[in-house]
Amino acid sequence: MLKYARSLLDSVLGRKRALDEEPESSGSANEDYSNKKLKVEDDTKMVYKVYISNIPTCTSSAIKKYLADKGIPRISKSPQWDYAIATYKSKEEAEQAMKNVEGQKFKNKVLKASIQESTEEDHRNRFINKANKKKGKKNAEEDADPNLTPAERLANQVTPLHKMPYDEQLKKKQRTGEHHLLNFKRELNKLQLSGPERHQINWAKQPGLPCEVLEIIASPEEEGYRTKCEFTIGKNFDGEATVGFLLGLFRLGIVAVLEPSDLKNIPISAKKIAKAMQDYVRASDYPVYDREAKEGVWRTLMTKTQRTGDIMIVVQIKSEGLGDDKVDELKKDLIDYWTVRVKDQDIEVTTLLFQEWDGVSNGLTDRAPTQVLYGDGYIYEELLGCRFRISSSAFFQVNTPGAELLYSKCAEWCNLGDGRKTTLLDICCGTGTIGITMAKSVDQANAERNGIKNVKYYANKVEDRLDVFRRKGDEEIVAVLDPPRNGVHASVIRAIREAEHIDKLIYISCDAKQAAPNFLTLCRPQSQRVKGLPFKPVRAVSVDLFPHSEPSELMIEFARVRPEEPEE
Ligand SMILES: C[S@@+](CC[C@H](N)C(=O)[O-])C[C@H]1O[C@@H](n2cnc3c(N)ncnc32)[C@H](O)[C@@H]1O
After folding, report:
1. What residues does S-adenosyl-L-methionine bind to (predicted)?
2. Do 273 and 303 contact (CB within 8 A), yes or no?
3. What is the secondary structure of 503-521 as a DSSP string?
4. 513 near 136, Cβ under 8 Å?
C-alpha cells in the first residue's frame, strides 16, 4: 500500500507567503493624492536631497520622530545608516530643512546637514543602478543606459535573461546547477573531521562533479507560462494609475509602476486582466495606494489563470477610513465589473476574492482574511491527469507543463510500482501534487480501485511530525522532499538520517544555494549530533520552470551510504 505523508495543508487552508520589503520612509498623513512626489513629469526638473549625518546607527523610529518635530516629516533611513535623507522638489524647502537640523543635538551627537542636487532623471537612474548592484546584476550599466525605455528596464529587472536565446539560457542554468553541486562537495570537504567516520565522504574526494548530472529539462512553454501573478497598483512615471510591477526597489526610492505588457513570462490572459483592472481603477473615485505616504485605496491585484481556463482574481484595498457602506458598495461594483462588464473583453472569471489590508506590508497577506465575492473561492488545475483544487494562498507550481516534466522525472527516479510494497513520503507536499500524481501514474489500476485512498496526510509542519519518519513496516520507503526556498529545519534532515529504513531521498530545490546546509547535514559523516548513516548524491538534473528568469529547479537523488558498499 502506498502511503503519503502530508506535512502542511497550507496550500489548501491558506498559510504563509513572502511579504515585500518594508519601506524605510515615514509619511505625513494628509496629502493631496494628485500631488505625489512619485509623479515625474519632467526629467530635467531638479531634486534636492538633504543628507543629515552623524546619527547613531540602529536609530530609525527615534530620529524619524525627532526630525518630524523639526519640520522634516519624510526621511529615508536604514538602521545601519549613520545618516538620513530627505528629498525635496524645491531648493527653498531643502534649505529650510537643512537650517532646521544643522548643529542640533540628537542623542548627544551634533547633526550635520548638506544638500545635493540632481535632475529627476539622474535621481531615478542612480536608484536603478543601486538596485541592480545590490542584486549583483551584471547589466547594471546597461540599465543605467538612458536610451533604455522604462519598459525595457522593467523587462531586465523581472526577466533578466529575456534577451538571451532560450538554448543559451538552458546552458547557463545547466552550469549553475553544476556549480551548486561542486560548491556543496567543496563545503563537505572543508569540514574538519578527525574521527574514523571521515571515510564516509570518500566519494566527495573524487575530482569533478559529485554525481552524474543529466541534461537540463527545458520548459515546454517559453512564454506566458506564469499561472500566478501578483501586480502592484500604483502610479506610472506620468502619475497615472497603473496595474503592473514596481520598477526597482521601493526602499531604494523607485516607486513607479509599469504595465506588464512587454514581459515574456506573463500570460496574455493575466495581462488582459491587469489592463481591465487598470481601466477600472482609472475610472474609480478612489485613489491608488501610495506606499510611501501609506494612503490611498487600491493596493494589489493577484491573478491565477490556469490551463483549465479557470481564473481567480484577488483585489486588495486599504479600507481604513472608507466606512462599511462605501466598502460594501465597492465590493458590489467589483462583482458587477468582473462578472458582467468585462465579459465583452473575453474575461470569464471563475472566482473573485477581496482583501482589506490597512497594514504597511505590501502584497497579499495572511494577516487579513480573504473574502469570497464571487464563485466558491477556488479554481482547478489539471496536472498529469489529476485535478487539483487551488485556493488563493495555495502554493502551486506556476508553470504547469514544466511541473509535469519535473514530477514525471521524480516519479521515474522514485521507481515505485513494480509490485514491491512501497511507502512514499511526500515531505512538504503542499497541495499534494507529487504524491497524488505518482499514485496515479505509478499504479493506475490501484489508484482507480482505491480512488487514491492509499494516501495519508499530516497537516503539520514537518519538524513537528518527525515521528512519521520513525515508523517502520516491512515496505520500502522512498522520500521526496520539495521544501520552500530555504530548505527545511536541520532536525528534519537529522530525522531522515536516523530513519535507517529510508534509503533514497529525492530532494527538489528551487534555490540550491539556500538548500546547501540541508545537503551538508544529509551527507556529512556521522557525529554525536548527526546520527545515522549519511547519504550521498547519485544523480541530479535541473528542470527549468522559469524561462527568462534566473532560477531553475535542481532535483538531486541521494542514496544511503551503506558500510558494505564502497563509498568511492
Ligand atoms: C516548494 S513547495 C512544494 C509543494 C508541493 N510539492 C507542490 O507542488 O504543491 C513547498 C511547500 O512546503 C510547504 N511548507 C513550508 N514550510 C513547511 C514546513 N515547515 N513543513 C512542511 N511544509 C512546509 C509550503 O507551504 C509549500 O506548500
Report:
1. 397, 443, 482
2. yes
3. EEEEEEES-HHHHHHHHHH
4. no
Range from 64-78, 126-140, 171-185 that averages highest in pLDDT: 171-185
As a CATH number, domain 228-383 is 2.40.50.1070
Whether ligand 1 lies within 6 angstroms of the CB of 462 is answered as: yes
In 157-210 the beta strands, taken as DSSP E runs, fall at none
**Nearest atom, ligand 1, residue 397 CA:** 8
Which CATH architecture group holds 171-219+395-560?
3-Layer(aba) Sandwich (3.40)
Given a contact cutoff of 8 angstroms between Cβ atoms, the answer to whether 381 and 228 are in contact is no
Helix (H) or strand (E) holding 482: none
Confidence bin at 55 (pLDDT 50/70/90): confident
What residue type is 308 in one-letter code? T
Contact 326, 356 (CB under 8 A): no
| Max Cα–Cα distance, the chain, nearest Å | 83
- The strand ranges marked E within 396-513 are 422-427, 476-481, 502-509
Cβ atoms 234, 288 nearer than 8 A: yes
Out of 211, 410, 414, 510, the active site residue is 510
Relative to the CA of 15, which ligand 1 atom is closest? 25
What does the radius of gyration of the chain's CA atoms come to, in whole angstroms? 27
pLDDT band at 125 (very low <50, low <70, confident <90, very high): low
Among protein residues, the one whose CA lies closest to atom 24 of ligand 1 = 430
Q: Are 249 and 21 in contact (CB under 8 A)?
A: yes
Grid cell locating 113: 546637514
Q: Is 169 annotated as a binding residue?
A: no
Range in 62-71, 308-317, 399-408 the model is least confident about: 62-71
Q: Is 434 in the pocket of ligand 1 (CB under 6 A)?
A: yes
**DSSP at 206:** S
Confidence of residue 252 (pLDDT cuts 50, 70, 90): low
Q: What pLDDT sits at residue 28? A: 24
Q: Note whether 90 and 48 are within 8 A (CB).
A: yes
Residue whose C-alpha cell is 526597482: 248
Greater pLDDT, 552 or 453: 552
pLDDT of 122 over the 70 cut: no
3-state class (DSSP) for residue 385: coil
Type and span of the H or E element at 501? none
Average pLDDT over residues 8-17: 26
Domain at 33-158, CATH homologous superfamily: RRM (RNA recognition motif) domain (3.30.70.330)
Name the residue of 381, 390, 428, 458 whose CB sits within 8 Å of the most ligand 1 atoms, as the mutation to test its pocket. 428
pLDDT band of residue 141 (cuts 50, 70, 90) is: very low
Q: Is the pTM of this model over 0.90?
A: no
428 belongs to the catalytic site: no
